[in-house]
Amino acid sequence: MRILIVVHGCPPAAQGGSEIYADAQARALREQFGDEIVVLTADQDASRPERDVRVEQRDGLRVVRINNTFRDTQSFEETYRNEAIGAIAARVIDDFRPDVAHVHHLTRLSTTIVRALAERDIPPFVTLHDYWLFCHRGQLLDMNCRVCNGPARDDVSDCGACLGPAAGAGSVAFAGAVAVRALERSVPAAGRLLRRAGEGMARVVAGEGAAEAQSRRRLAHMREVCDDVTHFFAPSRYMRDQFVRFGIAPDHITVSGYGFDHRAFTGVSRAPSDRLRLGFLGSLMVSKGPDVLLRAIAALPHGSVSVDLYGAHAAYHGDDSYRLRLEPLLQQEAVRLHGAIAHDQVARALGSIDVLVVPSIWPENSPLAIQEAFLAGVPVVASRIGGIPEAVDDGRSGLLFNAGDADDLARVLTRLVREPALLGTLRVGIPSVRAIEDDVRFVRRVYETHLTRRAAPAAVPRVAAVVLNYRTPDDTFLAVRSLLASRRPLDDVIIVENDREGSVGAAREALRDVWPKIRYVATGGNLGFSGGMNAGIRDALARGADRVLLVNSDVIVPPDCVERLEQCLKRSHGAGIAGPVVLARSEPDVIASLGMSYSPASGRMRHRGFGDRITAQKQQSDRVVDGVSGCLMLVTRDVFDAIGLLDEDYFFSFEDLDFCLRARRAGFVTVRSGTAVAYHEGGRSLSATSPRRLYFAARNHLLMARRTGPAANRVAAGWRAVSIVMLNLAHAVLWRGGSPPARLWAVVRGTRDYVAGRFGADA
Predict the structure, then answer these.
(1) Which residue has the higher pLDDT, 412 or 506?
(2) pLDDT tens for residues 21-34?
(3) 331 secondary structure, DSSP code
(4) Whether 593 contacts 608, CB under 8 Å
(5) Cα angle vertex 573, ends 571, 576, to 5°?
(6) Strand 53-58 to strand 61-67: parallel, antiparallel, or no bridges (unpaired)?
(7) What CA–CA distances, in Å, run from 717 to 330, 606, 662, 706, 724?
(8) Where do the H-state alpha helices sit in 709-756?
(9) What are the residues whose beta carbons fall under 8 Å from the beta carbon of 147, sequence distance 6 or more?
(10) pLDDT in the model for residue 202
């Protein structure tokens, strides 16, 4: 099997837990199963150019390193979603063509790697080592190093406070913030002074709420990334529960503890000592809490303990001030600082201590050091936080204390000093530790299960396309021919003649060559977009359609569009409606819609990206949106079963957004595909310059705002209605068709009919 391992660092340069575990997993897969492994990782070498690629062969593994020190980063978004790094990774994927990929961490890389894998039908599996996917600081600690609950499923949070104002202040300010952090590391006092000044300026430039908006954007993007993941592994139940709370389906996450190479810990011996030898293993950084241990031992009887610290000072998200807090505590007589050690020296270090202390203040997942201590026969004293209590059985294999509480830790350590037999009892209670061989056997079985499922033939959903024709025979002919050329064969192509009986001959004649491949449904009169489409939807559902594609007659559907929309529905958790990137048929590089956004408070709606030139960055990946254009949308049968058909009160305009919002209230997500594209002309059935458009826009805008906006506050609803009327009047003034009085009168008529409750076709 060809397996791509993706991780943000690789030994020997990187010695963090996730990097060490990913390296062990890669080696075990190669040694045990003979799998071909490529490791895609990041370097942070300031002497090399950014995004410089280095390839090496190491112990049978091919390692591809992409250099990223963030010095060229232009925005907060680029810190997690970096298109340039994503493009390099995509080339690695295409060259290697893995069967599966196992992602351990994406910081310093790019979240687009997961999308690239999913697009190539390569299942991405993810091990959750920390909270980075929904906490940009990774450890659920806020700026004051207090434990944070993280975002809820509705993304209500204070995450913007941790981003800081520079996150929303644009590329220049962000680049300046990077420079300030570099200065702060080298000249702390000057850096802190510039940081305070820069934060004040950033607030002015970015405006209130900019960082919070960036935070919400990141969370929405990360949920899209999670939707592309085939399956998650969580090394602790605590980690699993946190991600279920974030919104991952419980059956998409398996609790699977870390495996370890037992060979390095065979024959560990321990000489007797006249004092209790405590050890700390890890970086000397604030989240690891070594100060808690050092403050605790100050309260113990003199000479009763010694402390060996194996680790080096490390800044926390660029802040190195913790070093100053720690230095006085390190001067205690009982303390010995050994600095960082290579991972192959861990067993020897553990052999020199009696107890490992893990005083972390962040909700750790499942620290590797705990299991390694058990392999060396060393009991553990650890914080009662996160997944740690799952690993340390209090009173049996170790002792727990309240996280961050030096007095409580001193109490626990005093027990060990005063009760010599307790240490022997804890050693006897040390549990067995999972072997890396067992770990990779299990993980590989999960790979194979999912690959088998993909290979097994599945029932193909029945898809019907409904094309609405109203006096546009030539356009309808082009739309139908494009649908018949679809790479994903359509089970039914239904043409709805949305006009009186005597006006349908032209379209039928235009489609003479394809009569055997299509169906006709005649409405007998113009029922509007919603009424005409409903006639076709009913016919499609009656013929057993699982999905219905709604198609305006003035749309051209490329051969891969329907297939890509189906893929979008499949990979987007909870999706019931999917739409493409809509481009202008007459100007194919101009955006008509990247999906719709809607504000219930103001009633304001807009088509994202309208009028902009399309770029790869604007197209991006799949995005959850408030609505997609009714000119082309793919809808599952479940949505129709839950909410019914399009609302015929609208007749023309706003029925598509109303439908999507109703679906959302029923629990379905609307997604705009990042890969499916369609071309829309617009203004065919109702002239683009007709004042009737203004009539429907004003009336239906008010109708939808009333049906979808908050109803509890009548004053707010009244102001929302006034705002919508004023917006439509302003739009009428700028409108290019008809006379100004006719345009304004159309808005007035629409408002009047809304108030009077007259809907459907206009009078």
Answers:
(1) 412
(2) 999 999 999 999 99
(3) T
(4) yes
(5) 90
(6) antiparallel
(7) 63, 19, 19, 8, 11
(8) 714-734, 740-756
(9) 140, 141, 361, 362, 363, 385, 403
(10) 46
In the structure, how many helices (H) and strands (E) does the chain have?
26, 26
Biggest distance spanned by C-alpha atoms of the chain: 105
**Single-letter code of the amino acid located at 756:** A
* Whole-angstrom distance, CA of residue 113 vs CA of residue 56: 21
Four-residue CA torsion sign, 41, 47, 52, 58: negative
- Angstrom distance (rounded) from CA 426 to CA 418: 15
Under 8 Å between Cβ of 395 and 345: no
All domains in the chain, ordered by first residue:
2-129+230-255 (3.40.50.2000), 141-228 (no CATH), 275-428 (3.40.50.2000), 463-680 (3.90.550.60), 691-756 (no CATH)
Please tell me whether residue 129 adopts helix, strand or coil conformation.
coil
Q: Are 233 and 21 in contact (CB under 8 A)?
A: no
For residue 320, count CB atoms less than 10 angstroms from its CB and return exposed for 0-12, middle for 13-18, buried for 19 or more. middle
Q: What is the pLDDT of residues 649-691, one digit of tens each?
A: 888 788 999 999 999 988 899 999 988 999 998 755 556 667 7
Whether residue 718 is predicted with pLDDT greater than 80 in this model: the reply is no
Over range 182-199, report the average pLDDT.
Answer: 48
Cis previous bond, 12, omega within 30: yes
Q: Which has the closest alpha carbon to 402: 414, 420, 388?
A: 388
Q: Amino acid letter at 201? A: M
Distance CA 737, CA 730 (A): 14
Measured CA to CA, the distance from residue 135 to residue 285 in angstroms comes to 18
| Nearest to 598, CA basis, from 705, 714, 747 | 705
The single-letter code of the amino acid at 707 is R
Check residue 668 and report its DSSP letter: P
